[in-house]
Amino acid sequence: MLKGISPLLDADLLHALRSMGHGDLIAIVDTNFPADTFARSTVLGRPLKIGCNTAAEAVQAILGVMPLDTFVDHAAFRMEVVGAPDEVPEVQREVQAEVNRAEGKDWALHPVERYAFYEKARSAYCIVQTGDRRFYGCFAFMMGVIPPEA
Predict the structure, then answer these.
(1) Where in the chain are the domains?
(2) What number does CATH give the domain 23-142?
(3) Inter-CA distances, 24 with 5, 51, 63, 74, 86, Å
């Protein structure tokens, strides 16, 4: 155990996060997402599992140590509901609250069509799969930078 770091962040996930750089994507997906299939195309090449049952818990742990990119228009993404792109399911509202909390301000989750999200996940540094069984618990985040001390 490490002080100040969520126990959900195991050694493999911490290594992946530490290895990522500015502009790299991390996909956080629900239990129904074909994580193994898509992860074969990522930089890491295999899926990571996180020991929690909700996407919000995973996002809270990951964004507790990872900054979002402020140099792009969109650094946080959610998978759109098929046939209802403006619908925001509960799982996405929960994650939105965690993103806002981590960043200390309102931070838009940019909607991405399902197949476009699949391509985004394939191009990610890694895919992290939660135990969340709710549909559309799929998100991607672009890593930002930590500025030097003044």
Answers:
(1) 23-142
(2) 3.40.1650.10
(3) 21, 23, 14, 13, 27
Q: For every one of its 150 residues, what pLDDT tens digit does the chain have, with 9 covering 90 and above?
A: 678 899 999 999 999 999 999 999 999 999 999 999 999 999 999 999 999 999 999 999 999 999 999 999 999 999 999 999 999 999 999 999 999 999 999 999 999 999 999 999 999 999 999 999 999 999 999 999 998 987
- Asked if 33 and 138 touch (Cβ cutoff 8 Å), the reply is yes
DSSP helix/strand/coil, 17: helix
How far is it, in rounded angstroms, from Cα 91 to Cα 133? Answer: 10
Q: How far does CA 90 lie from the centroid of its chain?
A: 16
- pTM for the full model? 0.95
State how far the Cα of 147 lies from the Cα of 108, in Å rounded to an integer.
22
By DSSP bridging, strand 126-129 and strand 48-49 are parallel
Catalytic residue numbers?
A: 22, 69, 118
